[in-house]
Design a protein that fits this description.
Blueprint lengths: L16 E6 L9 E7 L11 H20 L8 E7 L14 E9 L2 E5 L2
Parallel strand pairs: 2-3
Antiparallel strand pairs: 1-2, 3-4, 4-5
């Protein structure tokens, strides 16, 4: 799931590392787990567009998040995966930062994109 340097492989090959996981902030659908990743390749000049980043987020949800929460009870109603091109505190806005967010539900071990 991660290499020796703590990097998590994704389809695009961009460098992605876990910033943190937040499970104590309620979401719109109930129990929500947030997996926040640093993905410098999405920033200006990084070359990773939204569609490529989305494919990476879906892959992370399936290969990284699903195994991490498999034994968690109760199961979250929603998982939010976020990418940021720089470390930011949870909930902070920075007009210079590039951030992407996607919400998923987990059904039968599969990540299902949710309206966000």
């Amino acid at each position: 799931m991660t290499d020796a340097a703590g990097l998590i492989p994704v389809p695009s090959g961009q460098v992605v590392t876990l910033l943190d996981t937040i499970w104590n902030e309620p979401g719109p659908s109930g129990l929500t787990f947030r997996f926040r990743f640093l993905a410098p390749g999405i920033g200006s000049g990084g070359g990773i567009d939204y569609d490529t980043a989305f494919a990476d987020m879906l892959a992370l949800c399936q290969a990284y998040v699903v195994p991490k929460i498999a034994d968690v009870l109760p199961q979250p109603e929603q998982v939010i995966i976020s990418f940021s091109d720089r470390p930011l505190p949870f909930g902070a806005a920075d007009p210079e930062a590039t951030q992407y967010f996607e919400a998923f539900s987990i059904q039968d071990g599969h990540c299902i994109l949710e309206a966000f």
